[in-house]
Amino acid sequence: ARKIIRNELDIGKKPVLGMVGRYDPQKNHKGLIEALGVVKKEGYNFDLILVGRDLNRDNKILLKAIREHDLFEEVHLLDQRNDIPSVMNALDIHVLSSSYGEGFPNVIAEAMACGTPCIATDIGDSKIIVNEYGSIVEPNNTKELSSAIMSNLDLMKNETVWNNLVLSSRRHITENFSIENMVASYRNVWEGKHHHDS
């Protein structure tokens, strides 16, 4: 799946960052583009995949931001797709740059379940999901987001360390947030309650 997507987008050996989520002020795509502008100026190579509704060439506001930060070559706008797990597998790092309004951001758990470490803003349950297997930054802070991205790109250069992170982020999700586990813990609570009633 990883190869197919990367071939489709003609991405070579560069690290691939991505965000899955419709275009919405809440997701703060603009902040992400701004942070990546800084990362590029610092001399880092990468590609960015944006997937979700309205993430396409008709989005004038987004295109303007991409041009302003000189990221026209790096950014791939994929609009809505129905092969999100494949896209997740094509990413090296998933970034959720939301500025507000996330409860339990499923997209982080989905990325990590695919072995894609995450950088996320400290909103809703992000911190609990990411735990120590990624980076949590404060919302709307370009400097913090760009530093987190750069330190993750640096970390990727050490294959052993990075592979370890990939495996442990996946394990963290399957052990703590898999559907089976969630259902089991709900069932325990429910049965516990039920038991007292009878």
Please give a structural write-up.
By secondary structure, the protein is an alpha/beta fold. It contains 9 helices and 6 strands, in the order H-E-H-E-H-E-H-E-H-E-H-E-H-H-H. Strand 5 (118-121), helix 6 (126-130) and strand 6 form a beta-alpha-beta unit. Helix 1 (2-8) packs across helix 4 and helix 2 crosses helix 7 (142-156). The radius of gyration is 18 Å and the shape is globular. The model has no long low-confidence stretch (mean pLDDT 92).
- Secondary structure category: alpha/beta
Shape descriptor reads globular
Helix content: 40-55%
Taking all Cα atoms into account, the compactness measure Rg is 18 Å
Chain-averaged pLDDT: 92
Largest sheet: 6 strands, parallel
Side-by-side strand order of the widest sheet = 3-2-1-4-5-6
